[in-house]
Every structure is written in structure tokens, then in C-alpha cells.
Amino acid sequence: MTTKYAALLRGINVGGSRKVPMPELRAVIGSLGHRDVATYLQSGNAVFSSDEKDEDLLAAGLEQAIEKAFGFRVDTLVRSGAYLRAVADACPFPAASLEGRQLHVTYFSEPVTADRFASVDAAAHLPEEFRLGDRALYLYAPDGLGRSKLAVALSRPGLLQGVVATSRNWNTVVKLVEMTRD
What we know:
The protein is α+β, with helices and mostly antiparallel strands. It is built from 5 helices and 8 strands. The chain folds into 2 domains: 3-83, SP0830-like domains (Alpha-Beta Plaits, 2-Layer Sandwich); 87-179, 2-Layer Sandwich (Alpha-Beta Plaits), CATH 3.30.70.
């Protein structure tokens, strides 16, 4: 049975470094035997269909192929369309009434607990807020991510040690759900 997945590449095409052109990324993903390959924006979002069911195995294969093709390692998370829909549906903030730039989801390579963020003084950052979900963190930043002091606090070195994390704004979250719909 074929599953639709999204590959979330971390930290590419930012500030002119770690360039991964989307046509070449699509070719790399297709060369692994994946089908229906498409990309969204230039920031490391790809969707594809595969018969493989192991997301970690898919991610490892993509990381190896990307490193071979582009000469540098790119942390990659692979998530099924069903997972992406569940994360979107579980959003604790009123997504429909917010601008896409005000709401972000950070996807994690593994589950994280609230203990990891215990040193973050959430009250000091109001009206910004965050909530944890299933291998995800929801961030409400009314003035956008670029001005978010809470986002800075949540990304402090050591807080996510050993965990791959990559963020997407709500517009991208919704688009990836649409693109991975069966």
C-alpha cells in the first residue's frame, strides 16, 4: 500500500548557503524510487509517495542521497500525510482566525516532554505562547517569528540537544496537509 509523505529538510537555502535547488531535489527523491514527487517553496518541503512504511528509514535514505548529490548533510524528517493532518487538527490555537505568519509548528525527530522546556519562562513572553503536541511544538507569535522572543528562548542551545527540529509557518503546514492528502 502506497503512503504519501512529506520530507522536511532542515536549514537549506537560507542566507545563500546550503543551496538545494528544488528541481534537483525532486530528481534525487525520484532516483530513490519514490513517486509523485513535488516540492513546495524553496525552503525544503517535498512530498512523495512510497510503499515503505518506516519514516526513519525513508529519512535516512534521503539524507544519504542528498549528501551524495549536494556534498553536505541535511537533517531530514519524513512524516506521513495522516500524521501531518493529525498535527494540524490538534492545533491548540485558533488557526482559522490567525495569519499564517503568526502560527508555527516545529516538528521533532522524537517525542519531547514539557520538562525539556522547564527553563523557559512562558509568562515572561506573553502574549506569545507555545504548546506541545505529538512530536511537535505549536508556537503562537502574534508579531511573527522574526520578532518572537519566545522563539529565541525555545531554540536556545542545549534545549533540544539530540533532537532534530524544523519549523514551518501555518500556511506551509496547511499546504503540506493538502499535498499529502490521499
